[in-house]
Amino acid sequence: MYTGIDLGSRYIRAVELDARGEKINLLRAALAPTPEGAMEEGRIRDFDRLAIALDKLLSAEQFVADRVAMSIFNPLVLVRRTRIPVMPEGQLKRTLLWEAKSLISFPPEEATIEYQVVSPPEGEPPQVDIIFAVVPTAMIEERVALAERLRLELTALDVEPFAIQRALVDISEERRNENVVVLHTGGSYSTMLIVEKGVFSLTRALPASKERREEDRDRLMREVRRFLDFYQTQLQQQGGSRGEIVNRLIVSGSRQDIAEFADYLGKSLGIPCEVASIEREQFDARSKETALNNLLSSFPLFVVAFGLALRERIAILEGVVE
Asked: What would you measure as the largest C-alpha separation in the chain, in angstroms?
């Protein structure tokens, strides 16, 4: 059983479930407003007020929280998929950090790097595909300190795009066979993600804007278009074909006009677009009805927390705490 906790600038969201059976046994799902200014761009800015708010939410909803997973992401975090020669682990981490130096905007000595090999060795000399994440160590330390303060058993820290992939793609057999784009909107930043037939391909965190709703809508549409153009260019450089079909665009997150926004994106980009959702049939009959109603009625808000809680069923990249 995992408890996924998503600390956002607008909401704290928590989902607790048991995913070991054929269907998901949902135990708890709840959210509460984040104290103003306590979280900004993925960083904890007011530790005491955030700790009190999270403790109140978990206590009021009777979360067990014996195994907790939290997410990490913001525009500073780097997540990449790359192909490199087979080499010893120590040399591999140094190589990845060297590759990341020109792409991160903080000192490498303040970074934590984690990776996973996602393909068998191929070619001569042998090479492997690797997904790696480079995270400011301070972001990890903040979450560890928060868990210690509340006496939570923090067993995993996960990069947010992987939690989103679990919740929206990996859980669906149909989507695992498609090229899927996700735009997860938030108060401090939005996350864009491409999953290529069930395999992580590309992600980017986009800082939020203080523009009016219509202007922000147009800005996000342009950013998604640029993101897709970059993806197509990468495919071409890797010997793929430009014009690879994107089967669907999924919109999730805290945007209030999310249905209207999804319709606008679909028409503007010429891609089938939908609001994130999940079917009741995915859940075991033992699931708590109150939790199920909370999750189903506000699923776009719960996507990250739900994906974190699914770690037991689907592991993409092992957390930096494990």
From this structure: 58
Q: In a 10 Å sphere around its CB, with 0-12 CB exposed, 13-18 middle and 19+ buried, how is residue 170 labelled? A: buried
**pLDDT for res 276:** 97
- The phi, psi pair for 25, rounded to 5°, reads -95, 100
186 within 8 A of 208, measured Cβ to Cβ: yes
CA-based nearest residue to 186, from 304, 278, 80? 304
pLDDT for res 102: 85
- pLDDT value for 282: 92
Report the pLDDT value the prediction gives residue 320, as an integer from 0 to 100.
40
Taking 50 as the pLDDT cut, the residues of the chain under it are 241-243, 316-322
pTM above 0.85, yes or no: yes
| Cis geometry, peptide bond prior to residue 126 (ω within 30 degrees of 0) | no
The secondary element (H helix, E strand) that includes residue 217 is helix 213-237
Tokens encoding 318: 């092992």
| CA 273 – CA 275 distance, rounded (Å) | 7
- The answer to whether 2 and 69 have CB atoms below 8 angstroms apart is yes
Provide the strand spans (E) within 217-303. 248-253, 273-275
Contact status, residue 112 vs residue 140, Cβ threshold 8 Å: yes
- Residue 20, pLDDT score: 79
- Domains recognised in the chain with CATH numbers: 2-74+138-312 (3.30.420.40), 78-136 (3.30.1490.300)
- Assess contact for 223 and 273: CB atoms under 8 A: no
